[in-house]
Amino acid sequence: MYLQPKNECAEYARLSRRGFLGASAAGAAALCSPRLAFSNSRGSGSARPTVIGLFLRGAMDGLSVVVPYGDSDLYVHRPTLAVPPPGAASGALDLDGFFGLNPNAAALMPAYQAGTLGFVHACGSTDPSRSHFSAMQSMETGTPDHPGSGEVSGWLARHLQSVAPSGSGVLRAISVDELLPRVLALAPSSLPIPEPADFLFPGAAVSAAARRDALEGAYAATIPPLAPAAVSSLEAIDLLGGVDFAGYVPANGAVYGADPFSQAMRSIAVLIKAGIGLEVAHYDYGGWDHHSAQGPIQGTLAGMLASLSEGLAALRLDMQGRESEYVLYAKSEFGRRAAENGSAGTDHGSGGMMMVMGKGVVGGQVHGSWPTLQAAALDEGDLAVTTDYRDVLAEILTNAVGGTDLSYVFSGHAPTPLGVVL
């Protein structure tokens, strides 16, 4: 999903209008014909939690979401834009005596207090680029130490390549979007499905079975890769056709909003509970590039943050008691500069903030080493990165999911233990 505010930079606007946010050249066949994203592999890997990946494209301002109100320099750098401290009008909701949560994200507080949700601050990439395209590319391929290396496959794709399928292997990964993101480039049995409930064989239902069989027979007579790809696609249609999306009732009184993000979270919850062997579900939430009129309390950021938080809160409540079945991360390509600009917004920065929720997450705290916002501690005016985003993802894959080959997923990177996911 891409929201198109008028306060984004020209580069991000071009990327967004092309509808090519992170989609790889290697995935071009999948973009034109999703069937080609499938492999015909089968396996017997044990059941694993579904990794839910959220890419908050455009660079969300972590300093306005998880607010370091205990660092007085925040209010020096942002005299008009900083979220006030707890106790003040429209103030942050206290998290730990130093950090506070933007009041528009109040829906996340129950998950944080229950220990299901955690944050990682001053987190980001070693790639110094402030270009959306370049930063997204190196982050999704997992190669920030070697930007422009030419790596084609995404790090999540390499994870799936390194483990046997969990279940039948018919549909291992989906992107709830029109495109496969770069992070899933070359992923086995992966497919972009913007509306999973509508992923049905086209045409009249009365003749669908006959037309399906005819199509399968026609493709069976072709040569690879068309034959196995077509069969795999038809199997995926059969698989999702057996899922009762319309009759689904969220658990624990959870209510999903009508907005696209909340509906995507609902679809993902349905698929996880259906037990179809889905290993990865990815969602692009764009529009976080706020160079002007950012509005962290009332405005663009406030509205987007409320939508994000309410969708995540509904998912968490719906999956309460089933936390072992999913692990979620949310991140951006980089953060925003420490100082506000002259247009009531913020420009491209460095250190950002990640969210993690679900299986194994050590929640109820803000992880990471805080570098401070003192002028001497800034990275060319930006919040410094003290936690490599790959270290968070490595703990997710190793401790929550298991079985992955980190030396293949993040080649050349030796993860530092963080204790974010155990």
Describe the fold and architecture.
The protein is built from 13 helices and twelve strands. About 30% of the residues lie in helices and about 10% in strands. Mean pLDDT is about 90; it is low at about 25-45. It has a single domain (about 10-200, about 250-410), classed as Alkaline Phosphatase, subunit A, CATH 3.40.720.10. The strands form two sheets. Strands 1, 5, 6, 7, 8, 9, 10, 11 and 12 form a nine-stranded mixed β-sheet that branches. By secondary structure, the protein is an alpha/beta fold. A hairpin with a 5-residue loop joins strand 3 and strand 4 (about 100). Helix 8 packs antiparallel against helix 9 and helix 10 packs parallel to helix 11 (about 300-320).
CATH fold-level assignment: Alkaline Phosphatase, subunit A
Poorly predicted spans: 24-44
Which second-level CATH architecture applies? 3-Layer(aba) Sandwich
Q: Quote the beta fraction.
A: 5-15%
Q: Write down the domain tally.
A: 1
Structural class: alpha/beta
Task: List the secondary-structure elements in sequence, H or E.
Answer: HHEHEHEEHEHHEEHHHEHEEEEHH
What's the tally of helices?
13
Q: Could you tell me how far the N terminus lies from the C terminus, measured between alpha carbons in angstroms?
A: 31 Å
Name the CATH class. Answer: Alpha Beta
Shape assignment:
globular
- Report the sheet with the most strands, covering strand number, pairing sense and barrel closure: 9 strands, mixed
Quote the average pLDDT. Answer: 91
